[in-house]
Amino acid sequence: MASFSVGGAHSSLRTPSLFPTPPTIRMLKHHPVLNCTPFFTTPSLFSPKNLSLRSSNHRAGIACMSTTTSPVGKDDQKLISGQPNEKVVQVSSWIDYLPKEIQPFAKLARVDKPIGTWFLIFPFAWSATLAAASGSIPDFRNLAVFACAAPFFRGAACTINDFFDRDFDKMVERKKERPMASGAVTPFQGLCFFAFQLLLSHGIFLQLTNYSWIIEAAFIFLSCTYPLMKRLTYWVQAYLGLTINWGAVLGWYAVKGSLQPSIVLPLFLSGCFWTILYDTIYAHQDKEDDVKVGIKSTALKFGESTKEWITGFAIASIGTLALTAYNAALGRPFFVFLAAASGQLAWQIRTVNLSSAADCNRKFVSNKWFGVLILCGILLGRVFS
Questions:
Q1: CA 327 to chain centroid
Q2: CA-based nearest residue to 378, from 272, 209, 252, 244
Q3: What are the boundaries of each domain within the chain?
Q4: Quick one: which H or E segment has residue 217?
Q5: CA distances in angstroms from 77 to 34, 85, 153, 234, 369, listed in the order given
Q6: Residue 361: how many CB atoms within 10 A of its CB?
Q7: Residue pLDDT, tens place only, 61-81
Q8: Which of 286, 350, 358 is nearest to 314 (CA)?
Q9: Whole-model pTM?
Q10: Looking at the domain 98-384, which fold is it?
């Protein structure tokens, strides 16, 4: 087959209408690795002047053509067909169908990325379900109230984060198109939107069975100061843990009207350890840009030892959850789900590619299943306690 193709190449120089260039030759002419262009396209090689070179070039041509007798590999296929300057097509979001005046504010509140809202809801739901009476299901009214407030509170937290980070975000590839970094929303508009979302969430929080303005004020303070921590400490993920898991305190208080430290404290700590784990994985997406900009994170602090560190936090999270269940006298079903949740964390840590931003994001988002498993375990453990 290879010798026939070479013969076709010779003939194409004389009678192209009868012997068109075979596809394999056309492919090789443009292949950056297997390019044998001088042999196939330079007629002077066959002139009497260069006749002495014909034999060696003929053998070189055979060698090149013989490589095409086996299928072209995937990497070579990319080299052949890839366009160096080809633009990546962005997938449209449902936000793009909203009125243009609203789109920047919807992006500012991250309404198209609900995973952050789930992370806010889980600690509250865990705590409120734990606070239910033995053999009973939780008060779904409190769960519904918090579920309605969480998107607005999370949106406010994202807004104030982007307000403080707007100059940094301009220098980070993944964040430079955010509304305040790109100029689609002015800082003043961002602050107004922040206040509007806080007012909405506050009005909804007031509907909880037992409301505490002190707990809500602490919640707001942590959310507003979190963006500043990345300038001060590498343990910014730990501060985020304090912030996003404050719902564990609010959830118990909403049901009981008081706090029980033997249950609430280990539950709160387990959520903090879990947050450090998943947000460290998330922070590995921006580690190179963070170094250039001067932002700190546990991803930079842990470096090559990240998997060892997050394994320790996974063990701490599972351990404090087990202590919480013991102190709350949960039934055996909880520990079955806790074992499954442990497997989910182990899978994340073992398989995550910390050098791949896409894989880090996939593992980060997969934590919703950890939250669901723990919630199901607490619910069944309470019902069958």
A1: 34
A2: 252
A3: 98-384
A4: helix 213-229
A5: 12, 17, 48, 43, 37
A6: 16
A7: 433 333 333 333 443 333 333
A8: 350
A9: 0.74
A10: Tetracycline Repressor; domain 2 (1.10.357)
